[in-house]
Amino acid sequence: MSTRKPLTHTRVLDAAMTLVDREGLQSLSMRRLGKELGVEAMSLYHHLPGKEGLLDGLAEALANEITSAVDERPASCMADWKSDLRSRCLAARTVVMRHPWTPALFAARQSIPPSMYLYVDQVIALFVDNGFSYQTAHRALHALGSLLFGFAQELFSPPVSGGNLDTQKTQAEFEEMAENLPYLSAMVASEMHQSDEPAMGWCDSQTEFEFTLDLLLGGLERLRN
């Protein structure tokens, strides 16, 4: 008797997300996913209508993961509009950093998952119920979205796996930069540190994200009616 776990819509999406987390969106195909699941690619079409349907399913799964992360925040995070919005953004960022291909996927889809519409509606309500105009809410949504997805991009990439850093060459380049670009090199020397997070290399992207988020929230405070 076969003990193979039956295919389901959820199992296919979970396997797709695991594959893309590991190897990126470019690795995803029905054939490759079938191989990951140990089945023929054609059997996947009973659960998802081709690659476009698969990508739509991933977008919906990501949106649900974001809304779940937001819903799981403690009540203390919602004491006022600013702490509520800040904690929403940080919860969403946790999901985006777990799946750094999120911005590319959302940008490529022609429709927004229903749960993401609900999330946006809740943010608009938070603005309007706390003295902001709909116009400001609209503009703030764009600013916050750009912040969330922009910080997930690879601004600085570490050396590719298997490559060795030429420390002598790097030191020579840094010394040349220090001579020609004194303020930039001083800033780099001041800020450089080891980081396990690949998204921004030597920069502390979490600290910089929160710094920028707080600047944005402070600016919005001045626009309340």
Helix and strand topology:
Elements: H1 9-23, H2 30-37, H3 50-71, H4 81-98, H5 102-108, H6 114-128, H7 134-150, H8 167-180, H9 182-191, H10 205-221
Briefly, what is this?
The chain has 225 residues and is mainly α.
CATH fold assignment of the largest domain: Tetracycline Repressor, domain 2
| Quaternary state of the chains | single chain
CATH class of the largest domain: Mainly Alpha
Q: Main beta sheet: strand number and arrangement?
A: none
State the end-to-end distance: 69 Å
Helix content class: 55-70%
Question: What is the annotated CATH architecture of the largest domain?
Answer: Orthogonal Bundle
In round numbers, the mean pLDDT is 85
Radius of gyration: 22 Å
Please report the total strand number as a whole number. Answer: 0
Note the total helix count: 10
Description of the structure:
This protein has 225 residues and is mainly alpha-helical. The protein has two domains: 1-48, Homeodomain-like (Arc Repressor Mutant, subunit A), CATH 1.10.10; 58-156 and 198-221, Orthogonal Bundle (Tetracycline Repressor, domain 2), CATH 1.10.357.10. It has ten helices and no strands. The model is unreliable at 154-163 and 197-201 (pLDDT under 50).
